[in-house]
Amino acid sequence: MSQAEEFHNLDDETQGLARELAPGVTTxxxxxxxAMLSVVRIAPNAMGTMHDHPEEQWxxxxxxxxxxxQGGEEIAVKKGDFWRTPGGVPHxxxxxPEGCRVLDIFAPPREAYxxxxxxxx
Length: 121
Prior knowledge:
This protein is mostly beta strands. 0% of the residues lie in helices and 53% in strands. Strands 1, 2, 3, 4, 5, 6, 7 and 8 form an 8-stranded mixed β-sheet that branches. InterPro entries: Bacilysin_H2HPP_isomerase, Cupin_2.
């Protein structure tokens, strides 16, 4: 593999494996050997499905505003905020009125996300 293939851009919508997670919630996935990045776009006021998985997940709000629903709590987040979700903790996100973009990091990679598809896995 050429080293150039290891470089990506958050704003290039043609890069990564595309996946529709829920209505109004799409992602581009970048799998690695020990970690995985996912650039998620959530349409204005759209919300993902409550779910959990065994992998640890970190998230960073890149743009917009949202409410993170995690472990039974609702926490408002703004651009620049980041959080950790331990494996097995139910979670989802609801975008604010302008929508939002989130960078998620999974360790280890989520096997269901190694290919294009639909849903949270």
